[in-house]
Design a protein that fits this description.
- A 6-stranded mixed sheet has the order 6-13-14-15-12-16, covered by helices on one side. A 5-stranded parallel sheet has the order 8-2-1-11-17. A two-stranded antiparallel sheet has the order 3-4.
- Strand 9 and strand 10 form a beta hairpin.
- The chain starts with a strand and ends with a helix.
- The chain has about 300 residues and is an alpha/beta fold.
- About 45% of the residues are buried.
- Helix 1 runs parallel beside helix 7.
- The chain has 2 domains: about 160 residues, 3-Layer(bba) Sandwich (FAD/NAD(P)-binding domain); about 100 residues, Polyamine Oxidase, Chain A, domain 2, CATH 3.90.660.
Length: about 300
Amino acid sequence: MGKKSLAVIGAGMAGIGAARVLADAGFRVVVFDKSRGLGGRCATKRWEGHSVDHGAQYFTMRDAEFAHTVRSACGGDLLEIQAPIVDEVGRELPSAGRFFHAKGNNRLARALAEGLDVRTGVAIEAVENRRVGEEEFDFILSTAPWPQTAKLAGISSVQNPYAPCLAGLFLYEGGRLGLSATRYAVSDRSGQALAWSACENHKPGRVGEGFTVMIAHASEPFSRARLEDDPACWVEDLRVLVEERWEIPSSAFRAMHPHRWRYARISQKMEIPSLPDGWHFAGDLLGESRVESAWLAGLEAARRILAGA
């Protein structure tokens, strides 16, 4: 009898985590992703000569197995943010460790995927009889957001449990301007438009000398209300808010870039309905909207597949 085979749809943390477990268990595993790179929302953009994490800003390592795996895969490229995160009134928030990959957080997925068969730039439009393209598989594991997974699996009347997030990247001339000299980020849970803002300069090697790069994530209400608006309008609004919060002079502004995350994080829990025979689903919908949780969800899915193989 030949090897059992698995197609993983999505090369984010859940997909890579599951693929690694099953490949190590002897499965033939192929990971497909429509993007050019790996990592999903663990995303990094090379922009204006700087490397900016515009998705997941950092990751935790609370789980011992995840911590061991990441340390082994990343080696000396695993670094920890030293500057504090404060809330909207300036109170420092507690930390159990905020980690990042020196070359960009998307490199975390790349390091964990070493040796796997990962095919990027492949958009899966349909899956029939567990056939992806010209290949047929024993199992399908989708880690795409649930609305996309449901469409591929032929499930109708799907709710969307995700909240969107509008993000902006902002470049200023001058190193660590304003309040960025003393803090890494501000997390605002008050419901204001600017929910998160951070200075990428606190990740060594990411920002060129003589510049400050800021990243902003809008709140859920702002993001929902402006999701389909012209990005040039809402990113300008975010820029004004960043400069006010961080006391950065507008005269230092040099460039900005908007990014729209339609499935940024989980806003409500839901029960996953029955999937077609041989299908499985994994992702942060089954846990928390954290890098670590997505990877652990992938491991749990892999173990379910192994138990039924």
